[in-house]
Design a protein that fits this description.
With 245 residues, the chain is mostly helical. It is built from 14 helices and no strands. Among the domains are: 89 residues, Serine Threonine Protein Phosphatase 5, Tetratricopeptide repeat (Alpha Horseshoe), CATH 1.25.40.10; 65 residues, no CATH class.
C-alpha cells in the first residue's frame, strides 16, 4: 500500500471515529479524532465544522468560533456552518456578529424557521425587541406550526404588559400543540394579570396537574391560595345572583 493511500485511509478512519463519538455526545474523544484527521488534510471544511460543534458543546466558545470560521472560509455555500457560527456568537453574547451569520445562513436556506427564530433572539440580545417581534410575526405567518415563534412573541408582549395579545398567542400555540402543558402557567399568568382570577386558577391547576414537580409549582400553589382570598369578580357575582333566581 502506498503512503498516500495509507494517509487517506488514516484520515478517513479518524474522521469516521470522530463522527461516531460526536453522535454519542462524547465530544472530548470526538475532538481528539478530528484533530488527528486534520493532520493529513488541513483544508477539510467538514472536519473544522465538526470540531467547532464539539467545542461549542463543551462551552469552549473561542475554539468553536475559530474552527467554524475556518469552515466558512473553506466552504461559504453551507448554511449549517453560518448557522452554528451564529449560535456560538449568540452564546458568547456577541449578537451583532450572530445577526450577520444568521442572515448569511437565511440567504442560503430561506425557509428554515429555526434560523429565522434565532435571528429574532439575536435582535432581542441587541435590545431590539421591535425588530425581534416583527421577525417572530413573519415566522408565524410563513411557518404557522412553528411553536417557538408564538411563545417568544408572547413572552415579549407580556414583558410590555400587553397581556391580552400575549394570551391570544399562547392560546393559538396551545391549539397547535395541545400536549404542550408548560404553556398552562403562562396562560394562567395572563389571565391573572388581566384580573380574571377564575380562569387564572383553572390554568394554574391544569399546569400543576401536568407538571407537579416543576420548579414553578410551589409559587403557583401560593398564587392559587392568594387568588382564593380575593373578592369574587363582577362576572362571578352576576353568575351567583342568577343561580339564586
Amino acid at each position: 500500500m502506498s503512503p498516500l493511500v495509507s494517509k487517506k485511509i488514516s484520515k478517513n478512519t479518524f474522521k469516521q471515529k470522530g463522527d461516531v463519538f460526536k453522535a454519542q455526545k462524547s465530544y472530548k474523544q470526538a475532538v481528539a479524532n478530528y484533530l488527528n484527521a486534520l493532520l493529513t488534510e488541513r483544508n477539510n471544511a467538514e472536519i473544522y465544522f465538526s470540531l467547532g460543534v464539539c467545542y461549542k458543546n463543551q462551552d469552549k466558545l473561542d475554539k468553536a468560533i475559530e474552527n467554524l470560521e475556518k469552515a466558512v472560509l473553506l466552504d461559504s455555500d453551507n448554511y449549517e456552518y453560518f448557522y452554528e457560527l451564529g449560535l456560538c456568537h449568540l452564546k458568547d453574547e456577541v449578537p451583532c456578529k450572530a445577526i450577520k451569520c444568521f442572515i448569511q445562513a437565511i440567504q442560503l436556506e430561506p425557509e428554515n424557521p429555526e434560523i429565522i427564530y434565532h435571528l429574532g433572539l439575536a435582535h432581542e440580545q441587541c435590545e431590539e425587541p421591535d425588530m425581534a417581534m416583527m421577525i417572530y410575526q413573519k415566522l408565524i405567518e410563513n411557518s404557522p406550526t412553528y411553536l417557538s415563534s408564538y411563545l417568544r412573541k408572547s413572552y415579549l408582549l407580556s414583558k410590555m404588559g400587553l397581556y391580552n395579545q400575549a394570551l391570544n398567542l399562547y392560546l393559538n400555540a396551545l391549539k397547535i400543540n395541545p400536549n404542550y402543558t408548560n404553556i398552562y402557567s403562562e396562560i394562567g399568568m395572563c389571565f391573572d394579570k388581566l384580573g380574571k382570577s377564575n380562569e387564572a386558577k383553572r390554568y394554574y391547576r391544569k399546569f400543576l396537574s401536568a407538571q407537579p414537580n416543576d420548579e414553578k409549582a410551589t409559587n403557583i400553589m401560593h398564587r392559587i391560595e392568594n387568588l382564593r382570598k380575593l373578592k369574587p369578580q363582577k362576572n362571578d357575582l352576576t353568575k351567583a345572583k342568577l343561580s339564586l333566581v
